[in-house]
Specification:
The complex is a heterodimer of chains A (474) and B (430). Chain A is of the alpha+beta class and 474 residues long. The termini of chain A are far apart. Chain A has 17 helices and 12 strands. Chain A has a 6-stranded mixed beta sheet, with helices on both faces. Chain A folds into 2 domains: 203 residues, Metalloenzyme, LuxS/M16 peptidase-like (Cytochrome Bc1 Complex, Chain A, domain 1, 2-Layer Sandwich), CATH 3.30.830.10; 225 residues, Cytochrome Bc1 Complex, Chain A, domain 1 (2-Layer Sandwich), CATH 3.30.830.10. The radius of gyration of chain A is 24 Å and the shape is globular. Chain B is an alpha+beta fold. Chain B has 2 domains: 205 residues, 2-Layer Sandwich (Cytochrome Bc1 Complex, Chain A, domain 1), CATH 3.30.830.10; 183 residues, 2-Layer Sandwich (Cytochrome Bc1 Complex, Chain A, domain 1). Helices cover 40% and strands 18% of the residues of chain B. Chain B is built from 15 helices and 11 strands. In chain B, the strands form 2 sheets. In chain B, strands 1-2-6-3-5-4 form a 6-stranded mixed beta sheet, with helices on both faces. Chain B has a 5-stranded mixed beta sheet with strand order 7-11-8-10-9, sandwiched between helices. In chain B, β9 and β10 form a beta hairpin. In chain B, α10 packs antiparallel against α11. The chains are: A alpha+beta (474), B alpha+beta (430). At the A-B interface, α2, α3, α4, α10 and α12 of A face α3, α4, α10 and α12 of B.
Chain lengths: 474, 430
């Protein structure tokens, strides 16, 4: 057949995509309110960002901010946990609270006719949680149960170990979900203390938008949260601990019973506010995604794993870059060397400007898909708020990415993604530790001796991490 | 006690899907639903072939084949679909269920014609060689390792299917076994493509920024020229005989830190009139933190950390599953007894009007949320067409859910949640 239908057709002319515009006001109590309008469906969403998360916890209180957030939906001075659940479900709404390292977030979404009542519930759980003992104990038991699931999953465990190896005792080093020991020791009064001090309007931002006018959004914010008063106490601060110097080493957690070996390679890089952030996003995109170099080398060329990816999250302090995959125990050495070589390829065989066109399109396309839903728009705006990035940067993001060229990516990679990388392996050490030790500085931690509550990963171990000033890292 | 806030499900406006549905001369079903709000479009191509259609001794084959559909055609190199999507800011993926294999792309809308061409091209002229066949088989076995071996409780779905079905091919699951995958040969690939990948076994849906007639023109141009073989498409006609006594299977695993179980009950196919009532039953038991299982087992009695109910409705008779994971220090027998009390309660008395109104509101709200993305809209239409035979059901689902009465819920609970119809998988620490 030769009617032209066999030849690949060319794309048509592109149409411009619109990016929602946000408008901002500050209430008298100091609460920042960011509103947007998106009227295509009868849905409204809101996120309340509290400027205090896991990074502010002390080591011995790891898991505190997560427990506070988990308990918000579990009872207020007016309603029990089951009454809150009944109210939210009756509205067909979603109401969730959680904490990250940099912030705690309470979010709500509902259809337009249900939103007013759902938003009133958000206000109630943020301002009047009861922290009753029964729910504290139930959440504690659930958190401990969840920990045992996490520890049984090599991917999840490797991620926690990687954070400890990279940050040791600095902020972000301890597990957000806590450890069995810290969870057991968290007291109800300490939970209430954290909430009373740090959930405060002058350290919080409400992002609200969807099927309502900007005026309606600001009026709702004022109605529910206008009477919220800030305490006189000091605001949340993150301990000013220095970051350990990055250095090459291999840390193996010996878990012979795990079905496969999880691999994580990485180091601490830059914070979101860094002028290099756009370069970091593009460099990460060269590596990550289905057609990124890591997945091409690990999965597509060698079939070593079902998936391999890298991540470089946005964080207030220097963020962890990591490449991760899951492999057969017997191919862990090969996967480690391929991963290290692939990272090095960013310098040895750098991406050219031509190559970057597609990888930058991946970033920009993902950005546009992210803001296809109102929850996605709210999250994107919340990220700007959280990292003190001006809101109008949202619409500049595609241009910022477009401006990154090959030389910038190469120099970013040379500085941050090639040297001084740690390697974490969680799996059957007998299958790969010996071979790795021939060429790397290898440390083996028995699975039952692992203590994520210790900056050194082992209970009683006294080796102090080498320290350098954070400014040298940021 | 504070008054329960409430709204009526009828206050939630669930807009109808305004789609155009046509069938080409070669039997290909094409559905287009325009939405020009943003310059993006989703394509969803669903084939009526899934795990249950795997050749004998080749379990996991439909899923392995899904991977091979990315390995090039007589006109294109391997991974061309990735070049045409990822590289221009779009994305693509695919999945296989017991009943269908589904391929989808989301792309800037000026690339719509090109991706329709590419989907037609891999339907018409897939080529696979020994090298990429072998590599991709390794990837699929890696997927098995990741999802089944490394994930705590990863084998549970496989065990439920294997034990609940004795003769129906649903018993083999979708991902299959590494041994049978290793036994597959390149000739099997060619035969499988010829058997199931044909226009009259496919549904193509386009949702998003497009002109309706231009889009149908492209579909006709690229898909319309693909011939339909005269042979009939093989279909599974095996009927699972009614189960007559409870089955209990115990599995122990080193990476299962807490005792868990699933109880699965045979239920009818997705197009059966009882399906809406079974979905409402699912929501009464398991949707949200105010559902019966969560309220009783998680909040009040604190026996489990998770409780889950799902009406797994399939093209052919499926399973109603109840799944719990014990809290630390709780014996499985105690959690199971509490679960059985809830099963007995929903069998012995109808749900209250408050519960039903809660479920109706949850369902209507979920339907609104599902309309947020072109990809979600396209997938809903493709699955309705392949799994239930008609895209129009997406516009009548809500009225069917709203029409389910308390007596209907109790009736399906009494009919299907019976002891002799139950298969229990106990998943215990080693």
């Amino acid at each position: 057949m030769n009617d032209g239908a066999t030849a690949m057709p060319a794309p048509g002319p592109p149409r411009d995509a619109a990016i929602p515009q946000a408008v901002e006001r500050t209430l008298d109590n100091g609460l920042r309110v960011v509103a947007f309008e998106q009227r295509n469906l009868p849905l409204i969403a809101a996120q309340l960002l509290v400027d205090c998360g896991g990074a502010a916890e002390r080591e011995e209180e790891a898991g505190l901010s997560a427990m506070v957030a988990a308990l918000l939906t579990q009872g207020t001075t007016r309603r029990s946990a089951t009454e809150i659940a009944a109210a939210i479900d009756a509205l067909g709404a979603r109401l969730d609270a959680g904490s990250g390292y940099d912030a705690s977030v309470v979010s709500v979404s509902a259809t337009t006719p249900a939103f007013g009542q759902a938003f009133a519930l958000l206000n109630e759980i943020v301002r009047a949680p009861a922290f009753v003992s029964r729910e504290v104990e139930r959440v504690r038991t659930k958190s401990l149960s969840d920990l045992s699931l996490t520890y049984a999953n090599p991917n999840a465990l490797a991620r926690l170990v990687a954070y400890r190896v990279a940050y040791a005792g600095a902020p972000y080093g301890h597990p957000l979900a806590g450890t069995a020991a810290t969870l057991a020791s968290l007291e109800r009064d300490r939970v209430a203390w954290f909430h009373e001090r740090f959930y405060r309007p002058d350290d919080a931002t409400l992002v609200i938008g969807g099927d309502l006018t900007l005026d309606e959004a600001f009026a709702l914010a004022e109605r529910e949260l206008g009477g919220w008063h800030a305490p006189g106490s000091a605001r949340c601060t993150v301990p000013d601990a220095a970051f350990p110097a990055a250095r090459p080493r291999v840390v193996i957690v010996d878990k012979p019973e795990s079905g496969r070996t999880a691999l994580s390679v990485g180091r601490v890089t830059i914070p979101r506010r860094s002028p290099d952030y756009a370069a970091a996003v593009v460099a990460n995109a060269v590596l990550s995604g289905y057609s990124g170099r890591i997945n091409q080398e690990i999965r597509v060329k060698r079939g070593l794993s079902y998936s391999a990816s890298t991540s470089l999250p946005a964080r207030r302090l220097p963020a962890l870059f990591s490449a991760s995959t899951l492999i057969d125990h017997g191919r862990a050495v090969e996967a480690t060397e391929v991963t290290l070589a692939t990272l090095r390829s960013l310098v040895d065989a750098p991406a050219r400007d031509d190559d970057l066109v597609s990888r930058k399109a991946t970033v920009t396309g993902g950005f546009y898909r992210g803001i296809e839903t109102i929850d996605g728009i709210a999250s994107a705006l919340a990220e700007h708020v959280l990292f003190d990035v001006p809101l109008d940067e949202l619409s500049r993001f595609p241009a910022r990415i477009a401006a990154v060229d090959a030389a910038v990516v190469r120099s970013f990679a040379a500085r941050w993604l090639v040297e001084d990388l740690f390697v974490v392996l969680v799996g059957d050490a007998s299958r790969f530790a010996g071979e790795l030790a021939q060429t790397h500085d290898v440390r083996i931690i028995p699975g039952d001796g692992l203590d994520l509550g210790s900056p050194t990963l082992e209970a009683g171990a006294l080796t102090a991490p080498r320290l350098i000033d954070r400014d040298a890292v940021g | 006690m504070t008054a329960l806030p409430t709204i009526s499900a009828s206050a939630i406006h669930v807009s109808p899907f305004l789609y155009i549905d046509r069938t080409l001369a070669n039997g290909l079903r094409a559905i287009v639903i325009p939405d020009r709000r943003v310059p993006s479009a989703a394509i969803n191509v669903a084939y009526r072939v899934g795990g249950k259609d795997d050749p004998p001794g080749r379990s996991g084959f439909a899923h392995l084949f899904e991977h091979l559909m990315f390995k090039g055609t007589s006109r294109t190199a391997p991974e061309t679909i990735d070049r045409l999507t990822e590289d221009i800011g779009g994305f693509n993926n695919a999945f296989t269920t017991e009943d269908i294999t589904n391929y989808y792309e989301v792309i800037p809308s000026n690339h719509l014609e090109r991706l329709l061409w590419a989907e037609a091209d891999r339907l018409a002229s897939l080529t696979v060689n020994d090298t990429n066949f072998a590599t991709e088989r390794e990837v699929v076995i890696g997927e098995y390792d990741q999802r089944i071996l490394a994930e705590p409780y990863g084998l549970l779905d496989e065990l439920v299917n294997r034990e609940a079905y004795r003769v129906h091919p649903y018993r083999r699951g979708v991902i299959g076994s590494p041994a049978e995958l290793n036994a597959a040969a390149l000739e099997d690939v060619v035969a499988f493509h010829a058997t199931y990948y044909r226009p009259d076994n496919a549904v193509v849906v386009v949702a998003g920024d497009c002109d309706v007639e231009e889009t149908f023109g492209w579909i006709e141009r690229y898909f319309g020229r693909i011939p339909t073989p005269p042979s009939p498409i093989p279909r599974v006609h095996v009927v699972e005989p009614p189960q007559t006594e409870e089955r209990i299977f115990t599995h122990r695993a080193a990476n299962a830190p807490l005792p868990a179980l699933e109880e699965a009950y045979h239920i009818p196919e997705a197009a059966h009139p009882d399906a809406p009532a079974l979905e409402v039953l699912e929501a009464v038991l398991g949707a949200g933190r105010s559902s019966r299982l969560y309220t009783s087992l998680v909040y009040e009695r604190q026996l489990v950390t998770s409780a889950w109910a799902a009406a797994d409705l399939r093209e052919q008779p499926g399973l109603f599953g109840l799944r719990i994971t014990c809290a630390r220090g709780i014996a499985l027998a105690d959690a199971r007894a509490a679960l059985h009390e809830e099963v007995e309660r929903v069998r012995s008395e109808p749900p209250s009007e408050v519960e039903l109104e809660r479920v109706r509101t949850q369902i209507a709200s979920a339907l609104v949320r599902a309309r947020q993305t072109n990809n979600g809209v396209a997938m809903a239409l493709a699955r309705a067409t392949t799994e239930r035979g008609d895209p129009a059901v997406v516009n009548t689902d809500l009225e069917h859910y709203l029409a389910v009465s308390a007596a209907d819920v109790q009736r399906v609970a009494r009919t299907y949640l019976t002891l002799e119809n139950r298969t229990t998988i106990e998943y215990l620490p080693a």
